[in-house]
Amino acid sequence: AVRVPALRARLAAEDAELAAAPDGGALYDAPLEAAVRRWQAAHSLEVDGRVGPMTQRLMNRPAGAVVGQIRVAMDQRRGRGAAAPGRRIEVNIPEFRLRVMDGARQVTAMNVVVGKVARATPPLAVRMTAVQFNPPWGVPERNAREDLLPKFRRDPRAMMEKGFRLFTVVGGERVEVDPMTVDWASVNPQRFPYIVRQDASDVSALGRLKFVMPNGDDIYLHDTPDRHLFGRADRALSSGCIRLSQPMELLDLVLEGVPGWNRERAQRALDSRQTSFLSLPRAWPVRLHYDTVVVEQGQARLLSDIYGLDAAYLRLLDQRR
Questions:
Q1: Angle in degrees, 0-180, between the axes of helices 247-255 and 263-271, rounded to the nearest 10
Q2: Of residues 43, 228, 241, 289, which has the active-site annotation?
Q3: What b/e readout covers 93-107, taking b as 16+ CB neighbours within 10 angstroms?
Q4: Domain boundaries of the chain, sorted by first residue
Q5: pTM for the whole thing?
Q6: Segment among 21-25, 150-154, 174-178, 235-239 with least mean pLDDT
Q7: Out of 43, 222, 228, 289, which one is annotated catalytic?
Q8: What pairs with residue 57 in β-bridges?
Q9: Looking at the domain 76-136+202-289, which fold is it?
Q10: Sequence-separated (6 or more) residues with CB below 8 Å from residue 261
Q11: Which of the 8 DSSP states describes residue 146?
Q12: What does the alpha-carbon distance between residue 66 and residue 75 come to, in Å, rounded to a whole number?
């Protein structure tokens, strides 16, 4: 069972709002429940205000583990320097959060979905060079083998209705294949023989917008039809790319620096249902980083080390001592 006075003391030590509230003693009162909810949100847990097994386990982390997490954060920040001038995009992977910054000033922020543990989003420093309206999805081979093959086996017609198309290469030419003619039970997932593409649509995996930032990992920012996922606390759910909760808000900011473009023209491009490509006159710096300690208004929030990168970094720090 959770001892309420101990819980209150534990949270008040790092939650200024709870520390300033009247002491409710052994009563699990509204200020304490609100503090539990804030703590759960900061640690990518389900925000229900209840101190269940997962919440209790993370709250009871040894002090040494917390100190180690802070050591990693401090060492990472030493080599970063001051914020660069001008607008840029920052995505903190374990926070599931994107920020548009102008120097040290935050312009806007939004929730994002990042890669699941098995398909982790890599830290990157790249440049966004273009926007694609109504993007088709060229499905990576791994996604086709692991995610789509079972669905084709169950119901190829349903996959066709979602805009998925199959191709094979014959004599150097790409030839389309009717999914209804494939003996899916005999397809070897280790040697998946088809190229898979999903046409642009409202149900396409990429939604209506793709923000292009060339890199060797083929990571980009994009819209998504799966809006319900942004309500989850743990949003490590994608195959590596960054899904945006507010893609149109980001588009508006990007278009501010593009002569002849505004929301109305962009909406016409989207409404046309045709795939089109807008090269940006100024490339935007984009940094995908992995910081599990976030400081806001003087308060440090310790996030979950979703990919185990802090643990590996800490081992390197200890070896240098």
A1: 130
A2: 241
A3: bbbbbbebbeeeeee
A4: 4-75+293-320, 76-136+202-289, 137-198
A5: 0.88
A6: 21-25
A7: 222
A8: none
A9: L,D-transpeptidase catalytic domain-like (2.40.440)
A10: 255, 278
A11: I
A12: 14
**Residue 205 structure tokens:** 């995996």
| Structure token pair of residue 288 | 């995908």
192, amino acid identity: F
Read off the pLDDT of residues 85-132 as tens digits, 9 standing for 90 and up.
889 999 999 999 999 999 989 999 999 999 999 999 999 999 999 999
Rounded distance, CA 302 to CA 36, Å?
A: 14
Q: Count of alpha carbons within 13 Å of 258, Cβ hemisphere only?
A: 19
User: CA nearest 280: which of 127, 136, 134, 135?
Assistant: 127
Say yes or no to pLDDT of 1 above 60. no
Q: What is the dihedral of CA 150, 151, 156, 161, to 10 degrees?
A: -160
289 is catalytic: no
3-class secondary-structure state, position 79: coil
Q: Is the pLDDT of residue 65 over 90?
A: no
Confidence of residue 142 (pLDDT cuts 50, 70, 90): very high
241 is catalytic: yes
